[in-house]
Amino acid sequence: MNPIRNAPRALIRRHRARRTSPAAELAPRSRPWTRAVGLVAVVLLGAWLGLLIVGDVRVPVGPMNTTMTLRPSLTGGTKINVSPLGALQLDSHVAPVRLDVNVDQLDPGRAQTLVDHPERLSGLQDEVARDVEHGTLDLAVRSCVAVVTGATALGLAVYRRPRRALAAGGLALTLLVASGGTAYATWNPDSVLEPKFSGLLSSAPSLVGNARSIVTEFDVYQKELARLVTNVTKLYDATSTLPAYQPDPTTIRVLHVSDIHLNPASWKIIASLVEQYKVNVIVDSGDTMDHGTAAENGFLDPVEDLGAPYVWVRGNHDSRATQEYLEGLRNAHVLDDGRARTVAGLRFAGIGDPQFTPDRSKPEGAEASQELAGARLASALRDQSAAGTPVDVAVAHEPSAAREVDGEVPLVLAGHVHREDMEVMKYGTRLRIEGSTGGSGLRAVEGEHPDPIQASILYFDRDSRRLQAWDEIQLGGLGLTTAEVSRHLPKENQPGATPSPTGTGPSPTGTGPSGAAPSGPTPGPP
């Protein structure tokens, strides 16, 4: 009726027709899917970031300090990290989250409490179960907070709308609860019977027996584990009260250790001896590791904090990678190929073991290769003497290599055989063989009786740089907590003996196989 009034409506209809073209009709249908995918991506990324930032829970489990963490995973399961030995994985559940448990360290205070109150060992299993239950509950609560907070914060940063951010947080909480429910529904307690080992623990079945037998005899293993914790703590106490000797202040004190074989208790013992005996230099005649893998390298880090220079030669359980790692540590002096170094007033030269046999195999020609290595070391010692810089102490891992330097140096140190010995060889060189300062490491539980932990303090005159005396130190191995120190003197230093010349060459004197006279053991604390 009124064309002028109707004209705007027609324009509006044409304008709407242009907006609703076929391409435009498809756009609104695709936008919900795009938004949903974007929201899911924001939720997953925010939840993951939240778990990374605040998802860790430090939980004391018995005398151990552990860290529990939830991590996103396609397969689920539980991973237990035991640094530096490796890890083991359990197919404990099927869910998009994995439980990581890191065993950090032994707490000395709680371990000491077990020693002081042995009656608590009977309830150790129940205490561990309560600790794990409490830690899991704490982890679940903290993970919920971390997931919701992370997703909400990321949603607010991306969408800048509180409603969208709250939706992201709610969806993250829903996903976590669903994952927890799935894990609970698929929980498999029998997964402990079939763990998967990695790192050094890959040889665990051969070291500790079949996993099923461990579960079958769980009570026995539980008691042994509690006894191990008790004895390690007592061992620490024994080293802290060892009797100390105060020779002339100018005397050079050398701590000889060997064959630690990855025993972490050895570092505590060495540090204690360095402090009490005012040690000037530590000499390690090899086999510090057990398999020589890169995973073990972190075990060497305490060398930097022992309080004295650390002179080291490679053993047959130490790889070239072990040697390269140790060369990069502060305080470490690696000897190889007969090269000489002056440390703390004494000149040392040594050679690494020519063989790498972490599986304890003995290939053909092993003895010949040791003799050849010893001959190379002897040649290097002759070159040093000809150059006017004679060596005071030579170091090799195996005694068969060390015997080849007889007549070229006053003293040669070795290890390998896990028992102490001392002898003056045919041409006057004194051979000192150290026992295992690690109590044979992981092999301590193989025999009927545990190997003792052994080390020696060697006393040198600063002017002549000759051996004046040595103390043999022996600590009881696993299950034993005794400590004994015995003083020994070379024949020429015994009362009434004719003093030996002060030159740098070896002395031809000795007292039979050992070349020493013990002054009797000095018992430490029982």
UniProtKB/TrEMBL annotation:
UniProt GO cellular component terms: membrane
The Calcineurin-like phosphoesterase domain, residue ranges: 252-419
Annotated keywords: Hydrolase, Membrane, Metal-binding, Transmembrane, Transmembrane helix
Protein name: Calcineurin-like phosphoesterase domain-containing protein
Region entry Disordered, spans: 484-526
Listed transmembrane segments: 36-55, 139-159, 166-187
Parts forming coiled coils: none
Recorded GO MF terms: metal ion binding; UDP-2,3-diacylglucosamine hydrolase activity
Comp. bias (Low complexity): 495-519
Example GO BP: lipid A biosynthetic process
InterPro entries: Calcineurin-like_PHP, Metallo-depent_PP-like, Metallophosphoesterase_sf
Gene3D superfamilies (UniProt xref): 3.60.21.10
Species per Swiss-Prot/TrEMBL record: Streptomyces pactum
